[in-house]
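Problem 12. The chain below contains 259 residues. Write out its predicted structure in token notation.
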Amino acid sequence: MDRNFDGLSHHFKQQIYGTVKGQLRLKMLDIDFTQHIPALTQQNRTLRILDAGGGMGQFSSALAAMGHHVTLIDVSAEMIEHAQRVFSEVAPQHQSEFHCAPLQAIPDLDLEPFDIVLNHAVLEWLEDPKAAVELLNRQVCPGGYLSLMFYNRHSIVWRNLVNGSWARASGESFHHKKNQLMPQNPQEPESVRRWLTDLNLEEKCWRGIRCVHDHMPRFMRENKTLQEFVEIETRFGVQPPYRDLGRYVHFLFQKNNQA
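Solution.
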């Protein structure tokens, strides 16, 4: 069953986006978008952006602040409420749309195709992530972009191996008592990439996010600044094999203009 995060918005605000690891995730996405989507910064051009499973809209609200039109959809009414507050603070002059609905209901909303479709930290919570990718692709206009960020199965397997949790590393579930928010369905990057190429999308970016940060002992992490992490992750996050151990994977793919 797909996961709904009603009742957990405070946790996400404090434990993810209020930390270096959450800020680092946003910084890496910003770098990829700036480098690979030139239309984002073109003057007098407003892009249509869909944030599918957008949660509190921490990333898409910044795109709205740049003047782009954002439609945010999330199954959690609580997350939608928080997103509306974030957008009112970050992008008060720009109109955005909010829909409380599951990802699978997007076609029922009868929306026009989008220049950019975001799906960040969602696939790992879905029962059928491949079907979700196919659905999201149908929301992208010709020449548009699909941005997927998801929890990397390789990273959590490696983490369990080096921690001595070998049985968990070899199993299908990584849940344990100390972390009830472990994603139920972390994805292998190679599988998701194959789904995207099978849809005839062109790869623009493959980045591992928190390739270094999440594999450092805590006492070492605490002695590093956010900027230091940004610099090292920018360098190694796109280089295999380091890329392949990132806690998250970011794929940015573009649809053919003739599609």
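Discussion. The first strand starts at residue 48 and ends at 52. Students who got a different answer should revisit the alignment rule from Section 12.3.
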